């Protein structure tokens, strides 16, 4: 994979349709690592960034902190835990 060259100069890119979705052909100097990206809209712009996986426990915990906590409806229900009764198996 070519090494991305830092640049702040915009380049025009081609839009096309593939399998019912709109796609963009990204010029080589803007190439991203990996095979997945996150995309979001901010003030009329599309922001595309590579998906990165945590490489250690500190990074993993930092990612988990970003996730919203479970709502009360998502908690496990209370289960009545009754003791087992002895059974005669003979």
What's a concise summary of this model?
This protein has 90 residues and is α+β, with helices and mostly antiparallel strands. It is 10% helix and 22% strand.
What does this protein structure show overall?
The chain is an alpha+beta fold. Helix content is 10%, strand content 22%. The chain is built from 1 helix and 4 strands, in the order ββββα. The mean pLDDT is 85.
Structural class: alpha+beta
Bin the helical content. 10-25%
**Strand sequence of the main sheet, in spatial order?**
1-2
Rg over CA atoms, rounded to whole Å, is: 25 Å
Overall mean pLDDT: 85
Number of strands: 4
Strand content: 15-25%
Please tally the helical runs, counting DSSP H or I stretches of 4 or more residues. Answer: 1
What is the N-to-C order of secondary-structure elements (H for helix, E for strand)?
EEEEH
Morphology: elongated
Largest sheet: 2 strands, antiparallel
Instruction: Please give the alpha-carbon distance between the first and last residues.
Output: 70 Å
User: Which stretches are poorly predicted, pLDDT < 50 over at least 5 residues?
Assistant: none
């Amino acid at each position: 994979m070519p090494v991305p060259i830092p640049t702040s100069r915009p380049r025009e890119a081609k839009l096309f349709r593939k399998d019912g979705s709109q796609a963009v052909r990204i010029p080589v100097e803007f190439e991203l690592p990996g095979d997945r990206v996150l995309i979001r809209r901010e003030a009329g712009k599309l922001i595309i960034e590579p998906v990165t996986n945590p490489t250690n426990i500190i990074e993993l915990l930092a990612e988990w902190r970003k996730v919203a906590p479970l709502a009360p409806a998502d908690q496990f229900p209370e289960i009545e835990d009754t003791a087992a009764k002895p059974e005669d198996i003979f």
